[in-house]
């Protein structure tokens, strides 16, 4: 299986997280055109040695970090992701801003036996980390900059921190992303 594409990344602030269930969300926003998404999983490991050998070992999910790049992100969308104030085209970051938890989803294109497969990824509880901002002067060649974002992936109250589903049609993967982030009530 080969991977060669990623698209349609959306974020929706959490409205409510009922005990033992998946969160429900506010309106979702598309972050921009997805350039890259890279997940790093953080695992806690414990080992017990007895009689001079490993007797028990436990590896448990703690959190994840999803490093994302998009081509551009509109200021209103940035306000939604980072909890910043947006009004009349102006985005204001304040030291007291509270970055919201939210759901995050996108899909990627895989190739299996010469045919495209679309794998949707849904993270029920994530929180953005303020990222760097770079700019460079124009020179004798054009270098495009992308918008980096980093999200911490959390375990929601029901414990299911990631969902993945494969589809044979791209429109089905898009519908899955929309369905997961359009959860207005818990079912």
TrEMBL record:
Protein name according to UniProt: Phage tail protein
Biological source species: Hominifimenecus microfluidus
């Amino acid at each position: 299986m080969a991977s060669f594409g990623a698209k349609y990344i959306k974020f929706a602030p959490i409205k409510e997280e009922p005990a033992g269930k998946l969160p429900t969300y506010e309106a979702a926003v598309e972050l921009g055109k997805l350039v890259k998404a890279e997940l790093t999983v953080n695992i806690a490991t414990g080992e017990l040695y007895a009689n001079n050998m490993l007797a028990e070992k436990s590896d448990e999910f703690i959190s994840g970090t999803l490093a994302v790049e998009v081509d551009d992100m509109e200021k209103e969308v940035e306000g939604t992701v980072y909890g910043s104030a947006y009004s009349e085209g102006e985005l204001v970051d304040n030291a007291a801003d509270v970055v919201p938890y939210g759901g995050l989803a996108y899909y990627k294109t895989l190739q299996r036996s010469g045919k495209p497969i679309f794998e949707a990824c849904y993270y029920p509880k994530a929180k953005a980390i303020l990222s760097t901002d770079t700019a460079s002067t124009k020179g004798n060649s054009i270098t495009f900059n992308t918008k980096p974002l980093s999200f911490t992936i959390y375990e929601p109250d029901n414990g299911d921190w990631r969902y993945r589903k494969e589809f044979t049609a791209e429109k089905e993967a898009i519908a899955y992303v929309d369905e997961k982030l359009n959860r207005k009530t818990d079912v």
